[in-house]
Write a structure and sequence with these properties.
- The chain is α+β, with helices and mostly antiparallel strands.
- It has a domain at 22-61.
- The protein is built from one helix and six strands.
- It has a two-stranded antiparallel ribbon. A two-stranded antiparallel ribbon has the order 3-4.
- A hairpin with a 4-residue loop joins strand 5 (72-75) and strand 6 (80-83).
- The protein is extended, with a radius of gyration of 20 Å.
- The chain starts with a strand and ends in a 7-residue tail after the last strand.
- 0% of the residues are buried.
- The mean pLDDT is 87.
Length: 90
């Protein structure tokens, strides 16, 4: 485990914390998000600019990212293209 230095207070201070190796993007984050949602399923959340409310357990689960493999991707200011190799989420 390593130490990382993070900035605090508008960049004026620093703190050293242990690097826990957590993932905060992609499929790993969706797993963390679903676990958190299960633990707080009975909690109310506000929706629609604060005008509505629902239980967190009633919210739909996050959907897996679809595959775009083989689709054309535009590159270089719209002047080039290539085939996508994105296989989607697990």
């Amino acid at each position: 485990m390593t130490k990382i230095r993070i900035r605090t207070g508008r960049g004026t201070g620093t703190r050293e914390i242990d690097d826990t190796g957590k993932e905060w993007a992609g499929d790993a984050f969706k797993k963390v998000q679903d676990e958190t949602k299960k633990q707080a399923a009975n909690r109310m959340v506000h929706t629609g600019r604060g005008t509505g409310s629902r239980r967190l357990g009633d919210m739909p689960n996050s959907k897996p990212r679809p595959s775009t493999e083989g689709m054309t991707r535009i590159t270089g200011r719209g002047t080039g293209s290539r085939k996508s190799t994105n296989k989607g989420s697990e």
